[in-house]
Every structure is written in structure tokens, then in C-alpha cells.
Amino acid sequence: MSLPHAILTALLEKPSSGLELTRRFDRSFGFFWSATHQQIYRELGKLEQSGAIRALPSEAPARGQKKEYEVLPAGRAELAAWAAAGQDPRPMRDPLLLRMRAAAVVGTDGLTAELRRHLDLHERQLEMYEGIERRDFPPERDSEQDRLRHLVLRGGIELETFWIRWLTQALDTVDGEE
Amino acid sequence: MSLPHAILTALLEKPSSGLELTRRFDRSFGFFWSATHQQIYRELGKLEQSGAIRALPSEAPARGQKKEYEVLPAGRAELAAWAAAGQDPRPMRDPLLLRMRAAAVVGTDGLTAELRRHLDLHERQLEMYEGIERRDFPPERDSEQDRLRHLVLRGGIELETFWIRWLTQALDTVDGEE
DNA sequence: CGCCTTTATGCAACTTGTTGCACAAGAGCG
DNA sequence: CGCTCTTGTGCAACAAGTTGCATAAAGGCG
After folding, report:
1. In DSSP terms, which residues pair with A33 in a beta bridge?
2. Which of A84, A175, B29, B168 has a CB 3.0–4.6 Å from the CB of B110, allowing a cystine?
3. Which of residues 93-132 of B have CB within 7 Å of strand D?
4. CB contact under 8 A, B2 and A93
5. How many CA atoms within 13 Å lie on the side-chain side of A119?
């Protein structure tokens, strides 16, 4: 049940239309939560029905016309309750680690190229995050919000760093076999 | 489409019944892929129907009786093809990072306890992994299979280490606000 | 025997996430 | 005007994962 809360958070930071939200989820928001535009539209409909958000008044509320949403007090309260509630960490489910374990039984043919490709993807991702860190979190900005958001971004950066280190080890190990 | 392949990998390592598989997925297999017993039984049925695995003959093939499965050549081939194929890393989706971002907007009330609880869970998990590392991967064991499986376990260990480090930072940041 | 617990298999309903496509309006262009 | 491209909203079908419950046999116990 996290997607509605992700949308509420995004809308509290800045009221947006469905497509704008989609773009934000593809960019910086995607560090910690991804979503497709279909998911977003479906959820916006539900949130509007339940009274958590509302569409800002517009002259032309027709199909194909931009529709901006803002969060209502009920939505804000719901988000605050959710953020403070207890939730266990999700059990791990990583296809790449699984494939490595499978390779231990069926052989490592064709794996090197795939590992290199992933390494490259993670290196680009890391560069992007570091660019954002330089742009959005210079040392002089230090409000409460900035510190918390910076912390989240640091999570993304350190996770990418982990993958890069692991993939490098993996390439050493797999190449060593051949 | 990873669950069937996770099951094939587990069965290749050691033929098992549904409940045995469930236990393995709760223990060491869970480092990189989790599954409930309902998922597993459903998938075992599908895999048997498609000819990837078969039930080992038993005297009493009745409900409530243990039913062991083994992988057939078709299943092994399918797994090898899947392991070597290209698959993009999944987009991130972490509820805790999301909650931290939400907390930046709605406030950090009640968050400290939750962060401490997660820190504790990750510390236990790390200890468990390190125990397994000492037991199953002593320096003298160094076959190809061992190196690859050890690599996967190292992934689990380093991920837990990452979370512990991040949660410690997070606690510093959140406590600093109060 | 009758009752309870453990081991084991399994169905059904629901929620969440993905994929593919349809529809609508405006802008640029010959 | 008619054509195509971009922006924007949305439905429908499917796949994957979760939750709750049902069923059955075997072993221990009074």
C-alpha cells in the first residue's frame, strides 16, 4: 500500500497533473519509488474518490486536458499516520543474485556480458545521483527538509555504490573461472 | 518471471517437497529470493504440467503426503537460458526511503522508534549471514560452485551492512532535529 | 477412543504491478 | 484544410504476489 502514499508525498511537495507526476517518478522520485503512468492515473482516481486529494478547478475539464491535483487535509493526515506506523522491511527479491546462484548450478555461459552491462547501468545511475547531489544539496542548504531529503538521496548513492562494488567482485570471480 | 527459476535452482541443488522448499526459501534461499508456501505449491503445479519437473514416485501419492520433485532436462535447459538472457535491473521501490521522504513533508513524529527497530532487524540478519559464512564457506572450500554461492552471500552481507550504516546516519539526522 | 498439535498440500479471493492500446486536443506544416 | 507529431488522460487484460482459509494424515496424550 505504498503507491498512494508516494503520490501524496509528491503532491505535497508540489501539486501536479498525472503526466507531471509520471515525469517526476521517472526522475528524482524514482530513486526510492517507481511507477508507470497507468498506475498513477488509476491511483489518482481512487485518491480523489476517497477525498484525500482534489482536482484544481479548471476552465476546460475535458479528456486530453491537463488536470492538476492538490492534497486535502484528510490526505495529509493519512500520509502522516502511514509514515509513522510500523512496517517490516520487505523480504529481498533480487533477480541478479538469483541468476548468479542459478549460474552456480547450470554454468556461467554468457554471464560476463550481462554483468558488465549492469555495471555500466549502475555507474551511469550513480553519476546522475551525484550530479543531483551537487546541484540540489550544496553545503549551505541545511534546513530540516533538506537534511532528510539529502539522506534519502545518500541512500540511493550508497546503494549504487554497493552494486558497483559487488558487480566488480562478481566479474573477477566469473572471469577467474574461464 | 523469476519464481519458477528460483524453484528450479533450489530443486537442482537438492530435490525437495513443497514444504521443504518453503523452509529453504525462509532460510538461506531467502537472501536473494523470498516466496510463500502458496506461491511455491502453485508454481510446482505449473512446472510439473509444463514438463520442467516431475514428482518422484511414492507409495502413497495422496493429499497430506509428502511429494518430492526433481528437475527434468527441459527444466534445466530453461533455467540455463533464463540465467544467460538479458534482464534490466528492476526499478527501486523501497518503502522506508519513501517514508523518510514523506517525513520531510509531514514531520518525523514517531520515526525514531521505527528506525531503531529496523536497525535491530538488520543487525540480526547480518549476524545470521555471517554465521552462515563461517559455517559454509571456510577458506579451504574453493570450488567453482562455492565461489559463486559465496559471492551471492557476500551480496546479502554487504546489503545488510549498507542498511545498518544508512539507518545509523538516519537516526543521527532525525534525532538532531528534535 | 476422542482430542489436540504438527506436518503437509492446496484453493479462492484479493491487491499490486505491467503491457498494450485507445482517445482527445493542440501545434506545425504544406 | 488535411496530415503528423506531441502532450495528456485513460481503459482492459494480464501477471505476480498476498492473505485467509480448507483439507488430510500422523503422532502424542488422557
Report:
1. B93
2. A84
3. none
4. yes
5. 15
